[in-house]
Specification:
- The protein has two helices and two strands.
- It has a two-stranded antiparallel sheet.
């Protein structure tokens, strides 16, 4: 979470679930920022505790008025 905040991203949603391997946990983050998400994924993938980082395309758009 600290890496997410320090890279200028805001966590909008977070889901955690157990993986097939009981030693792993899958965490899904929805983040918002003016910065490219690649900056965050690069930093997260360098962490020792992280096995894999996937960027998934938007399934919906947030509209601000």
């Amino acid at each position: 979470m600290r890496v997410v905040r320090h890279r200028g991203f805001r966590v909008c949603a977070m889901n955690m679930m157990t993986a097939a391997n009981p030693d792993h946990i899958n965490i899904e983050l929805t983040v918002a920022s003016q910065r490219p998400v690649d900056l965050l994924s690069t930093k997260l993938s360098k962490l020792l505790d992280i096995a894999c980082v996937e960027i998934q395309p938007h399934t919906s758009q947030q509209i601000r008025a």
